[in-house]
Amino acid sequence: MRISLYQPDIPQNTGTILRMAACLDVGVDIIEPCGFILDNKRLRRSGMDYLDKVDLTRHISWSHFKEDCVSSEDRLVLLTTSGDVPYCEFSFLPNDRLLLGRESAGAPQEVHDAADARLCIPMAGGARSLNIAMACSMVLGEAMRQTNNFSAGNVK
Description:
- With 156 residues, the protein is α/β, with parallel strands linked by helices.
- The chain is 35% helix and 19% strand.
- It has a single domain, classed as SPOUT methyltransferase, trefoil knot domain (Alpha/beta knot), CATH 3.40.1280.
- The chain has a 7-stranded parallel β-sheet, with helices on both faces.
- Helix 1 (11-24) packs parallel to helix 5.
């Protein structure tokens, strides 16, 4: 299981996701270009001292990321407000990459087209979207529960 961020543009959200990933021992892919300079200075406040503990892979482009997914036979699971399957009704696999679009613009059509599944988080009428880090944590928690990725060895 990995978290994949498509061209993130808010460093605080990225730092929060990196911290969560480090704490839960989940890898993170960042698909560049980012909307900010990807350095510890911009991520430190939300990522705290966890940034050096995360399994982070930077991809220079969407096409390089896709090649990596194909070669590893990972499934792309896009989290999107226009998703057609509620995340709690989806069957996750250990080789899923939870893909999140940009905070400001979501994911472009080519990313939607490449996804193996498009999931949504059901929300109250009139609500547009959740914070990306919050949405990521909700879906990751369910994915890890389903794939038994929470181990007693990780609980302290």
